[in-house]
User: What shape does this take?
Amino acid sequence: MEQMEGLSVTKCTRCPALVDSRSRIVDGTGPEDADLLFVGEGPGANEDSQGEPFVGRSGSVLDDALLAVGLERSAVRITNCVRCRPPENRDPTGEELEACRGYLTQEIELVDPEVIVTLGKVPSQHLLGRSVAVTNEAGSVEEIRLDDTPRRVLICVHPAATLYDRSQEETFEGALETAADLAGVDGAGGGQTRLDGF
Ligand code: SF4
Assistant: This one.
């Protein structure tokens, strides 16, 4: 796409409301060849001010859960469905999700992860193209086709869900364990290997 250089989006003004509310475009972070790609909904206030996805309290929850399954944050890639902060942290509209879809698709294509982990309802529904009951379906893996390439999507609750409902901790950690297994993590933080199937 003309406004994407590698994995970075520059000067995009497709979503007028988000252009007004953002401080910056928040691109994904992490290795460009990561085996695990986490996809959130969009930047919040902390992400908008720091220019990085999943920082603040949700980011800490994610970091801790990653460590618990033997993964450093620096070993995974983290991105969002929309790269600009919606006003007053509202959900991105369908139009905004569609406007940004090409960037996410290109990022998935370039990173070519073994597993895509959707963090919460919006990214799960956006990528799977169906209604998702995240709490019930967390930890399940579904295959989708993006630009004719099969991709595995693992549904996960949003890390913030564990802050409001402690019972979600187990669900969240269980999903990350499945993600680590699929990516071949050795359980001691010793890195990842490629999988041929699951
Ligand atoms: S959310 Fe995506 S499509 Fe919309 S203005 Fe930001 S970068 Fe562009």
